[in-house]
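Figure-free illustration: sequence to structure, shown twice.
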Amino acid sequence: MNHLNTITVSRRSSFEERQAALHQIYRQVLERQPYCYERKCLAAIEKDFLNDKIGVRRFLKELGHSNIYLNVFYFNASNLKFIEWCFKHFMGRAPLHQTEVQTSCDLLMKKGATALITAILDSEEYRKVFGCFTVPYPRQLQRYESPKAYWESHVLNHEYVGQRGHVVPTIYWHELGLNCDAGVCRHPEADEILDPPVSEAGEQLQEELLEMLRSMDVNQARKVVASLSPQQKAALRRAISA
């Protein structure tokens, strides 16, 4: 594992050390520091954390369950993208394989967003890696199930929220033929051939495709992406890039 940027607090940690840990938590989970009005909503749990009444894991659970986190990462995102973000923020990696994605998707659809976050924070892997007092950080595993799993974690941990949209997670980029390395998802031929103007019917198709991916579970979405015609994939690529 990569333990660079590891921050751990304990009963002996000073107020200043806890402030530094709090700053790092927001950087990892929100990918920014809270706005002024958000700090007011978080004031109670911030105070408990800084006064050593709760540890890192408890603070993470409260933050993840808050509307501040859910408004940014859940309510305006597809289920699959939200799952990907949860693993990034709380586990420091991307989902390892489709089984993990499917299990998370089932939990999310049956019990909701807060249940998924709780399951991650209560998992054996989380306890072994971070315990109750270490702030999660982007991890590099010693072993990956495939080169694709390594690539997905590497790219995900180095992107900013919204940089590649709120719908399609990294696990589908290659299936859509997208190149997202520069921060904007584009088809490799986009710079050589300009896309024709999108008609009203084409815009409706884009919206239907995006809405379809938002509402499906992981197996259904994979089948849909694989079965799209070149024209449909092109429409979806334009919608993602917009």
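We now fold a second protein in the same way, so the two outputs can be compared directly.
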Amino acid sequence: MKPERPERDERSGSTEPSEEPDAQGRPIGRRVFLGTLGLGVLGVATAPTLQRGLEGALGAVSGKDPTGLTGLLPNGGGFRYYSVTASVPRKTPATYRLKVDGLVDRPHTYTLPDLRALPQSRLVRDVQCVTGWRVPGTPFEGVRLSDLLDAAGVQRSAKAIRFTCFDGAYTESLTLDQARRPDVLVALRMQDKEIGHDHGGPVRLYVAPMYFYKSAKWLSGITVTDRVRPGYWENLGYDVDAWVGRSNGRGDDPTS
């Protein structure tokens, strides 16, 4: 899953990103962020040969950049996708499974064809990273999470949802009320095509009104629980409720 850092670390009060380990456990801090951005600005202004060399070097490190800043660099390409693990197994239509369990009356495991056969919803919204970059007007299509919960029969004691991913590390959470919103999808398509592996496919979560770290990639489990269990990045300081413009130190501009 793409790691995004909040604008302000609530634990320290700092307005700068604090150091965070990369996929191999090495810390990536403020100096790396600013140095990488500086290289990108330099690359724009250099001769083509040198610029290609810089782009190659930046491409080699972009998978370890947890900030989204490489989206501003040559060949950044808009979206920046990352993982918190060194490698992620690939799932095909034949091998993919999504389990819905926990506090439900009818646990069920869906195949990819099962999910494709269900009624599909389409949303076109901005994708907003908590670090500041945005991809406007992005189409997502998939099954409303609320439909899967209704099919499972959520029990009275249920209060929240825990999401797990087949990378083996990433987790996320929503309250039951948040999960039932019509703008929360178990997404099968993005930008009018099937979601590829690097983008979190074949199935990912899409939580339209929240910062993108809530939209868990490589979704494999939806477990109904009796309380909210903070997810991977929330255990490292992110807000559990990640409403765009109203969380992670951003309270003044809901579109920034």
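Summary for the second example: The CA atoms of residues 7 and 250 lie 7 Å apart.
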